[in-house]
Amino acid sequence: MSNLTNFYKFITERQNIFQRRFIDKQEPSWTQDEILSKYSFTLPYRELDRVSLNYICNVARPDLPFFSEQEKIDLVFSTIFYRLFNSPITYKHVSSNENQERLLISAKSFKPSTIIKSLESMSQPMLHKAYTVSSHTHGIRTHVDIVKNILKHLTTKKGLKILSQIVNASSGQEAFNHLHSIYGLGGGGFMSAQVLADLNYSSIYNFDVEQSFVVSGPGCYRGIRRIFTKEQIRSRTDVDIIRFLRNKSNEELAKNNFPFFRGRKLSLQSIEAILCEYDKYIRMKKYKNGTGQRATLRRFRQSDDRVYLDMLNSNTFLTLYMRWITFSPEGFF
After folding, report:
1. CA-CA distance, 13 to 311, in Å (whole number)?
2. b/e map of 236-254 (b: 16 or more CB within 10 Å)?
3. Are residues 69 and 193 in the same domain?
4. Is residue 282 one of the residues assigned to a domain?
5. Which of 170, 200, 230 is the last residue of a domain?
6. Neighbour count for residue 130 (Cβ, 10 Å)
7. Is 219 found in the same domain as 90?
8. CB 107 within 8 Å of CB 163
């Protein structure tokens, strides 16, 4: 069996677990794959991840209109905050507008000392450490670093201008360039691309970023090299390979009754993310303990499905797919 076939098999079984659990409402166990049953892997569709789905239903709100330019700016600011901490619990804790339908943190009234105090009053962990966040200022705690050395800069005149430029971008590349210029979101561009993927869930843009733009992260880089040889990769960029896999995967998976969610094809963002998960999966097979000079994989723990299903079946989430169908019908079967 080829490496590419193994990749398709992994994608299919991961999505089948979702299908059996949330669509068909089957009782566990949802897979015979020992690794997939014991460890946590994100889904091929980024928007089905619990953290992303919570963001869609409580912050992005694609079903709601924007009433002002400032509200759009606050959405970008709030999205950066949300993704840097990567925790719905933390975001809700610090949000000052919980009585509003779209939960936003105001960039203009942002007070770092108040936010830090609020964060430190939490009983739960403040950050979900799925990736490293740093402004490269050493010797201070991560949450203080994020608030004082990244978010605070966005409340200055220069920072607010960048937020406005992100709001008014006419393409994914333009929006990414402005995000990438933000202190603390630079580096290889992975965090900037993640924030852009989040903004794509709102009605801030009238184009589908996921179908036209992607940046490969470190895990994606490793995943590509699990599938292709050096000779096959030579002279091709990671983005070239992601585009190839997006097209090829949709063709091959369609032949084998892959449960495409609501008819949506796998996007460039989907392939980038699942390549990272595939690297983790192969690493587990190879090292048996999930480490192999990388962070240990998280054990699967079943969460409350009722809250998740409420968000999954909400009008808000359905509106997102309706928008995508409108702006990129080529992304659907």
Report:
1. 23
2. eebeebbeebbeebbebbe
3. yes
4. yes
5. 200
6. 14
7. no
8. yes
Contact 247, 1 (CB under 8 A): no
Can you give the residue range of the structural domain that contains 89? 63-200
Look at residue 57 and tell me if it is in a domain. Answer: no
pLDDT along the chain (333 residues), means of 10: 91 97 94 93 96 96 94 97 93 75 91 92 76 58 89 95 97 96 83 95 94 93 96 94 97 94 97 96 78 59 85 97 96 95
Same domain, 108 and 136: yes
**3-state class (DSSP) for residue 10:** helix
Look at the pTM and tell me if it is higher than 0.85: yes
332 pairs with which residues across the strands? 264
Q: What angle do CA 218, 78, 72 make, to 5 degrees?
A: 115
d(CA 272, CA 242): 7
Residues 225 and 324 in one domain: yes
Q: Examine residue 54 and state whether it is found in any structural domain, yes or no.
A: no
Do 171 and 278 lie in one domain? The reply is no
The mean predicted confidence, pLDDT, of the chain is 90
The last residue of one of the domains, among 140, 172, 200, is 200
Written as one letter, the residue type at 136 is H
Q: SS3 for 264?
A: strand
Claim to verify: residue 293 and residue 229 sit in the same structural domain = yes
Q: What's the rounded Cα separation, in Å, for the pair 22 and 2?
A: 31
196 vs 190: CA distance, rounded Å: 10
Same domain? 22 vs 86: no
Q: Is residue 122 exposed (0-12), middle (13-18) or buried (19+ Cβ within 10 Å)?
A: middle
Q: State pLDDT tens for residues 227-271.
A: 999 999 998 999 999 999 999 999 999 998 999 999 999 999 999
Q: What is the crossing angle of helices 218-227 and 3-18, to 10°? A: 130
Residue 55 lies in a domain: no
CB distance 268 to 242 below 8 Å: yes
Cis upstream peptide for 29 (omega within 30°):
yes
pLDDT of residue 231: 93
Structural domains of the chain, count: 2
